[in-house]
Design brief:
Helix content: over 70%
Number of strands: 0
Number of helices: 8
Largest sheet: none
Order of helices and strands: HHHHHHHH
């Protein structure tokens, strides 16, 4: 009887889409999403900024960047913390690309025009885990400020 009840509840559910592989590119995208949602909102400006960053960084067309972001959103929501993602980036890319990653994180944090302490604090923590020098972190933030 319990088996019949259990199959009743699970019968109509669509199969779960597997998470994308946690390579440096998807880890970066997931961190961008985590920064965007750190203030418990996920605004259009942030989504748009993430898509632009992914398209530029990986040579993607807009639709492909949006698809990649969707996969990165799954990673961001289903992977606790950010340490593993930061480690994938630190191990997978050189220092200059890590500095560029921090600039991208700041672009997302500032995309909505509202400086939020939760987003800023998260970017600061990620910078430390990426192994950036303080002066490079500050330069990345300055470069990300949208005029």
């Amino acid at each position: 009887m319990f088996e019949r009840i259990r199959t009743f509840f699970h019968r109509g559910q669509p199969p779960r889409t597997p998470l994308p592989e946690m390579d440096a590119a998807h880890a970066m995208g997931a961190l961008l999403v985590k920064v965007a949602i750190a203030d418990h909102t996920y605004l259009f400006e942030e989504v748009e900024q993430i898509d632009r960053i992914l398209a530029e960084a990986y040579g993607l067309k807009p639709l492909a960047a949006a698809r990649m972001r969707a996969g990165c959103e799954k990673l961001a929501f289903e992977t606790p913390g950010f340490e593993e993602m930061a480690a994938r980036i630190r191990e997978g890319v050189d220092y200059e690309h890590r500095r560029a990653a921090v600039e991208a994180l700041w672009k997302v944090a500032l995309a909505d025009g509202i400086e939020n302490e939760r987003e800023s604090d998260l970017v600061d923590l990620i910078e430390v885990h990426l192994g950036l020098e303080r002066e490079d972190s500050e330069a990345a933030r300055d470069a990300a400020v949208i005029p």
